[in-house]
Amino acid sequence: MTATVRTTCPYCGVGCGVLATPDGQGGAGIAGDPEHPANFGRLCSKGAALGETLSLEDRLLHPALNGARVSWDAALGTAAAELQRIAEAHGPESIAFYLSGQLLTEDYYVANKLAKGFVGTPHVETNSRLCMSSAVAAHRRAFGSDTVPGCYEDLDEADLIVLVGSNAAWCHPVLFRRMADAKAKRGTHLVVIDPRRTQTAQEADMFLGLKPGSDVALFSGLLVHLADHGFRDRAFVEEHTAGLDTALDRARQIAPDLAAVAIATGLAPQAISAFYDLFARTRRVVTAFSMGVNQSMQGTDKGNAIINCHLVTGRIGGVGQGPFSLTGQPNAMGGREVGGLSNMLAAHMHFAPEEVDRVRRYWNAPRIITGEGMKAVALFEAVRAGRIKALWVMGTNPLVSMPRADHVREAIQGLDLLIVSDIMANADTARARARTTVLLPAQGWGEKDGTVTNSERRISRQRRFLDSPGEARADWAVLAEVGRRLGHGKAFAWPSAAAVFREHAALSAFENGGTRDFDLGALADLSDGAYAAASPVQWPLPKRGGPKPRLFSDGRFFTFDRRARFVAVQPPGLAEAAGGAHPFVLNTGRVRDHWHTMTRTGKSQRLSAHRAVPFVEVNPEDAAFHGLTVGGIARVSTAHGAAELEVMVTDAVAPGHLFMPMHWNATYASAARVGALARGVPDPVSGQPELKATPAAIAAVAYRARGFVLSREAVPMPEAWWWARAAIPGGWGVQFATHDGSREVALALRGLVQAGGYELAEYADHARGRYRCAVYDGTRLVASIAVAPTEARPDWEAAKALFAAPEPEAPERRALLSGRAATEGAGPTVCACHGVGLDVITATIQGGAGSVEAVGAACKAGTNCGSCIPEIRKLLTGETAKAA
Ligand SMILES: Nc1nc2c(c(=O)[nH]1)N[C@H]1C(S)=C(S)[C@@H](COP(=O)(O)OP(=O)(O)OC[C@H]3O[C@@H](n4cnc5c(=O)[nH]c(N)nc54)[C@H](O)[C@@H]3O)O[C@H]1N2
Ligand SMILES: Nc1nc2c(c(=O)[nH]1)N[C@H]1C(S)=C(S)[C@@H](COP(=O)(O)OP(=O)(O)OC[C@H]3O[C@@H](n4cnc5c(=O)[nH]c(N)nc54)[C@H](O)[C@@H]3O)O[C@H]1N2
Ligand code: SF4
Ligand SMILES: [Mo]
């Protein structure tokens, strides 16, 4: 295979089209697909670096049973026999599936059918509970269906875009560039509402840095403002909605006046009223929201408080207007379509008796479940309590990403049966062990075939362009095989992913007749050839009627009376207030260049350059008060767990707040699993856990020495050291901190890197705590070590540049030992695509480049994917300020 293949990016919910051209050696050239309507050829840094994540290093390639490699037959034989035994001994409800918004729709459909229809357990949960479930619940309360009304074109056509709890510049970068284009083209105003001054906020016309958890107050105040100042769309409210009076009464209680909103949100009254005015005056407004809304103990109410404001103004279903839930994962939407959440049945149907009966008949599944299963937090509690005996985890890494992850890790060990389907052998969950543990190697992106649905309901194909490695298999095929082994041959007999898709599409249309939003009737008879060639399409796509980019333009919703509902929301609040031993609010989220628990992006040196170590953002005031210094190590702890991270001092976070990224897993850092710290109190409606506000403490950790090891192969670090690993050009780098002195460090590390026959070039000054060493295999540099006292932490950027050359010349060899750069350093990477560092960009600006374009022309930074443009703009502003 070397022809170019059209496929879809496996990361975020923007769902960008990708052109992949295999190189014949297991890799591929990656480019944006100019014809895909989500990105028109653009890719962000993560998408552009996909080629660097395709290596087979650390891949799970063979099935394993209790740690030993076995055949597929043995692995699935054990899995099926154990599932059968457990179902008989403890009832099918003691079995659970924990799935993922990163599975393909076909995988998800088969898992859901197997569990709910044939194993007979309602406990089919997914990581989407931690991601989208509050938006789903808010949609259902307001619209009677889980419908995202708008489409990406609405962002191009809006005059005002309000981003609530969304760091789109980093998390939906290609969509964010569309917003920036709209700003340039039609002067679209951008408002960002976030307790943290993110890169997205830097780009905004208005930034509202509200108190965490106070969104409901802000949007209740907005509802009151709109209703009282003549912005009500009376005809729309009258004909197409219900419940305004009650919702408005409640909003008035929460936000009687501007002063009340100011107190609740911590915002200045002028800022609030400027926002209210702008919103009121602008008809074309899209309010896009993401995890700052959903991952909250009040996520559903936050969503409805936003939707209420769109309903009262009738701004929904029209061009350039509407509430817009930005989905996180590539197939968060597909998961909802198949019914992968435990409170759904299938194809946007729930548990009304006629719905259960309909799906029962369609599946021919007499044992179909009739009610909801447990939601993620409750599910893992049930695992801990021993009520769940068997768990199949597929495409998600809960030992890192679940709140109270240390408890989850412990709980899992008590299972009778743990099945993990993953692509990586080193994923934390794939390394867990229960009484019986079955590890199943999955085909990854580029190896598997199927469909995903993005944030605007657009279904795109992920296509295979690489050979399947080792014994990896498609997840749907494995699930189907287990279905057959459990005796349900007929229901699980699909010959291909296309056949699964047809069955899924036909179910969506089955006895639908316009009563359910989700309808793929037109695709129910798609031939194998048409499936193979399918272009991206948006649903609904009923047999007759054609596609609809926007829903609700006719004012008809999916409630029984076809009216949308205003929702009376609860007053704002956090699950737990910070104070006492835990005086800080710990916020968690994402960085630009890593994806979730890093099992894939961790392999890319380009993506690991932007943020190479796990860090915690601290406000300068707090840093001064707690003796925290830039680059020092701090211990952040909560009632549930602790992490050690590098300190980043920044006024992006307000005093009293901390921010920590969610990415570092146990393979990449000694102690930075975010989930261990989060409390995760679930929203009472959606069950989505609060992940943005756990009370926490922070303290400096006084390590004696700091240093790094660069090596061609990953080197394990000694116990009790702090460390963080990153892919670097030419190999792996690990930065460490230890209470040992340089002499002990030298001893420990020499032992680790020095295999037979290697030569060492060393420089030691143990009296001053310094040690450097370069390890050669002949003329080939295989490792480089540097240690110094904490306050004189050695510079890793310069050494990384030297390490990139496999056979350094004499000046570079000297530089490795002296610690002084042979040439000018580039500084930490800002532009991942072209590898341009901070120092280079700063020098370019100081040299006269006065705009993003000029910087790009001079040093290429920002000219490929554009994900770093916000950072370049920030540097420009900073340098101009300095100059003035
Ligand atoms: N680079 C990158 N991109 C990704 C991902 C990734 O791992 N890496 N993951 C994808 C996935 S699955 C998801 S779900 C999305 C998430 O995308 P986002 O939701 O944009 O990302 P987060 O960083 O989780 O959180 C967004 C913001 O919510 C803010 N926030 C915290 N508390 C509050 C609050 O009370 N109110 C408000 N208004 N805001 C608050 C945080 O400060 C943070 O800046 O990103 C997707 N895209
Ligand atoms: N504190 C805190 N916690 C959070 C969040 C937060 O903001 N803060 N965000 C939450 C959100 S929004 C999300 S979406 C979750 C994400 O959290 P997870 O879903 O746990 O994160 P991933 O790293 O994406 O896990 C995907 C796993 O599937 C594997 N995999 C990749 N491709 C395939 C495949 O084709 N088949 C199979 N079977 N496996 C595959 C990967 O190697 C990896 O182990 O984290 C949640 N947890
Ligand atoms: S914005 Fe980036 S991560 Fe998201 S789908 Fe597009 S290329 Fe992939
Ligand atoms: Mo997510």
UniProtKB/TrEMBL annotation:
InterPro entries assigned to the protein according to its UniProt record, in alphabetical order: Asp_de-COase-like_dom_sf, BFD-like_2Fe2S-bd_dom, BFD-like_2Fe2S-bd_dom_sf, CT_Nitrate-R-NapA-like, MoPterin_dinucl-bd_dom, Mopterin_OxRdtase, Mopterin_OxRdtase_4Fe-4S_dom, MopterinOxRdtase_cofactor_BS
This protein's UniProt keywords: 4Fe-4S, Iron, Iron-sulfur, Metal-binding, Molybdenum, Nitrate assimilation, Oxidoreductase
Keyword Iron-sulfur belongs to the record: yes
Keyword Iron-sulfur: yes
Stretches assigned to the 4Fe-4S Mo/W bis-MGD-type domain: 2-58
SUPFAM superfamilies cross-referenced by the UniProt entry: ADC-like (SSF50692), Formate dehydrogenase/DMSO reductase, domains 1-3 (SSF53706)
Family membership: Belongs to the prokaryotic molybdopterin-containing oxidoreductase family. NasA/NapA/NarB subfamily.
Protein name as annotated: Assimilatory nitrate reductase catalytic subunit
